[in-house]
Amino acid sequence: MFFIFDVETIPDFEFLRRVLNQPDVGEEELLLQASEELTRNNSGFLPPMYHRMVSWAGLWVENNGKPVQKVAWNGEDEREGLESIFDTLLTYKDFGLVHHNGRGFDLPLLTYRSMKHNMQMPMRLNHYDIRYRFSKENIDLMDEFSNYGASSYPKLKHLGYLIDVPFKQTAEGNEVLAMYREGKLPEIEHYCYEDVMATYIVWLRMKYTVGDIPLDIFSNLNERALSKLKEIQAG
């Protein structure tokens, strides 16, 4: 069984104020300073340590690609959100993971935030099957398509362009903070679920491309997935 998931976050402003020793500056100025001092990339996107979770969404799928159950959470209480995703992961003993940049962001984020709240994560997340760099139980699409960094890392939206499927129609990642400030937590969860479905569709196409599933099974699952994606995008 695989868990395809995505996490949505906003900057942890309280933590940033302590790290930068800037208790009184406004949030926008704080973000500007943080992007200059704490990032290692050209985008200015903060590393996972400096974020807090406001939503997550996941889809349980069987090894053959058949979807089983959708689960999600959004809210202000981050500890509640962590408890929710960890309880979900305890549904199956030997689950695998599928994500896009989960190794680089989502999984480190879960570790950092668990430490902050003094929580214990499911033991499976520290198992060799998950931690091993080239694991087939912890599938990061960025690694799969770049041959583990030998080539360039693809954006999820561009993978959608490649296979003629429109992704990210409800929002973009850089819009999450603005949505949060407007109190649109359910909309953030909805956007998160679209990313999960996009990840699922790309993973499904990849599994067919490399010969892991036959054409008849792929065609059926892909048609259903595309229909679900259109439903999500329609709101």
TrEMBL record:
Superkingdom in the source lineage: Bacteria
Transmembrane parts of this sequence: none
SUPFAM superfamilies recorded: Ribonuclease H-like
UniProt GO MF annotations: nucleic acid binding
Domain Predicted 3'-5' exonuclease PolB-like: 44-230
Record's protein name: Predicted 3'-5' exonuclease PolB-like domain-containing protein
